[in-house]
Write a structure and sequence with these properties.
Elements (H helix, E strand, L loop, with lengths): L1 E10 L4 E11 L4 E5 L6 H8 L7 E6 L2 E2 L4 H4 L2 E4 L11 H11 L5 H11 L12 H14 L4 E4 L8 H18 L2 E5 L3 H5 L4 E6 L2 E7 H7 E8 L14 E6 L2 E7 L2 H14 L4 E8 L2 H11 L9
Parallel strand pairs: 3-8, 3-9, 6-7, 7-8
Antiparallel strand pairs: 1-2, 1-4, 4-5, 9-10, 11-13, 11-14, 12-13
Helix pairs in contact: 4-5
Amino acid sequence: MIEINGLNKYFSESGVLSLDNVSMTVPDNSIVGLIGINGAGKSTLLRIIAGIYKQDTGTVSVDGERIYENNRAKSKIAYISDDQFYQPGMTMKRLASIHASLREGFSWEKFRNLADRFGLDVNKRLSGFSKGMRRQSDIVIALSYGAKYLLCDETFDGLDPITRELTKKIFMEEMTDNNATILMSSHNLREMEDICDRILLIDNGRLVLSADIDDMRGLVNKYQLVLENSNQNISFDSLNVSALNNSGKMITFIADGNSEEIEASVRKLAAEKGNEVIYIEAVPLSLEEIFMYKLRKSDVSDREVI
């Protein structure tokens, strides 16, 4: 299990606060999505978990061990950066050889099998690969470590739809067959929705949401409402709703909480005004809609973060 408590990271050279009092856990044998707008602090968090950056305060541990400058703990982690550097003339096979020399558990059999599944020529220079092919090669090499934890920054960046589906399938196999834990960031929220067990939302360096996807879907809904007297205004302040819209006879709003309780409260508010609910329905939100809703509700102050 990855455990983080009270994590803070400040880049003194630029005067930028990147992570602010982040606490979270990543349970074993799961696929967890890390989401947030550009500059939210996702890459910084992944690099700290990988042991590349050192936090200023707080703790980061993997299976109970501190990660920074701990080679035994680091050996459990494979990290894929969103900005890889390759030496001129480097082939995929040569790059794998370098990684294999640094990783005792590197599996050449797994490397060849995964490269074949992606249709990659391991003897070809990486400079001749497309952006998506370089991303695939990074995934192949990282998974060949046999690491317990895979950290992947901007997972699906540059991948075409067919390759994205293959990548998701391989990640699922890694979790089910090898008990791996995958923490990945992506701007493609729809791709995350059908593979992740849990979502972590970072905004301005703070963790503002940590929830199982199924639970999150059940607790945030868009409501469609029609009242008998559509000209009569009803206050929804007590329900703490968001994105209220009154278009003709149909009123729509978004709210957190149990849908049955919210519907009962709306009927009560209407009755107190001598009105009646003709129609009300809770419509589940997509992950992208929930993401936007939670960002609007975030009370994080306006600070410069990366």
